[in-house]
Amino acid sequence: MTHLERLCIEKGLKMTDQRRIIARVLSEADDHPDVESVFQRASQIDPRISLATVYRTVRLFQEADILAKHDFGDGRSRYESVPLEHHDHLIDVESGKVVEFFDEEIEKLKEAIALKLGYALVGHRLELYGTPIKKSDKAYKKI
Amino acid sequence: MTHLERLCIEKGLKMTDQRRIIARVLSEADDHPDVESVFQRASQIDPRISLATVYRTVRLFQEADILAKHDFGDGRSRYESVPLEHHDHLIDVESGKVVEFFDEEIEKLKEAIALKLGYALVGHRLELYGTPIKKSDKAYKKI
DNA sequence: TTATATGCAAAGCTTTTGCGCTGGC
DNA sequence: GCCAGCGCAAAAGCTTTGCATATAA
């Protein structure tokens, strides 16, 4: 049983074949697939699945807080099973590759800034967009 | 002449009545309007304006780097004239209010993290989502 | 059994685009 | 006068939904 399926059961969600398959696809993904990709991967496992169900299921999972929705600026939503430990994303604007990172210091700052403004932090999103540094680049000299 | 119109001229953009009006609406906005809002405000100044032109114009301004596009997770894009100094956003999830803030330390960290990962930072987005802290809240005690 | 989930196709929303007309420069 | 910009309406892309059928509990 996959990680996400276990979480579904813990949340008391009714498990259908479709949900199990979608949970598996999302659990096994090491990228950040959009709905279309999830649908394609799920269809390969079982063609008896519809795009509407994928949309309904990712929404369900999201509302159950076991799936995170991201928007990397390309017009569609991308998904990622809620990781054990939080992380942020750096998007390579040349290749579209997504690099995950975690920085303790920046996490503390987020909390502190919200507090200073009079808010309790309930969510946060940080995305960095960058181009790979090559030795010839000016930026490389900074290192 | 509004701030944004001046920037348009500096960038050498051809100025039509419509662009001037849209620039004015965006310059005078102290919120983060979506295209529909910009269209409505512009229409009040001059009804001879179409939604398509608003879309084309915000895109043009964005490509000229004089307008910033945001996505606060409600399905449409929100716009803000590029501020003199960069800032991030905290979104009040109860009221939808958007608070702008700037934190030197977090800005430096963004750059440093990208560099550490081998990237030159070309863009970044930080949004905090929070609920207002009342004296009765548990979080209030942290202050 | 009974409420809930699914598939299909239609519709909804935001955003883009083709085309003939208008208007800056 | 010419090329870019505009309005209009159609279409495109992502996502949601109505309805009849199927299925988990």
Report what the structure shows.
The structure is a homodimer of 143-residue chains. Chain A is an alpha+beta fold. The first copy, chain A, has two domains: 3-81, Winged helix-like DNA-binding domain superfamily/Winged helix DNA-binding domain (Arc Repressor Mutant, subunit A); 88-142, Dna Ligase, domain 1 (2-Layer Sandwich). The first copy, chain A, is built from five helices and five strands, in the order ααααββββαβ. The first copy, chain A, has helices at 3-10, 17-28, 35-45, 51-63, 104-116, and strands at 67-71, 77-81, 88-92, 98-101, 119-132. In chain A, the strands form two sheets. Chain A has a three-stranded mixed β-sheet. Chain A has a two-stranded antiparallel ribbon with strand order 1-2. The longest helix of chain A is centred in the middle third of the chain and has 13 residues, at 51-63. Chain A binds chain B through residues 71, 73, 90, 92-93, 99, 101, 103, 105-106, 109-110, 113-115, 117-133, 137, 139, 142-143, and chain B through 71, 73, 90, 92-93, 99, 101, 103, 105-106, 109-110, 113-115, 117-133, 137, 139, 142-143. Strand 5 (119-132) of chain A pairs antiparallel with strand 5 of chain B, so a sheet runs across the interface. The structure holds a DNA duplex (25 and 25 nucleotides).
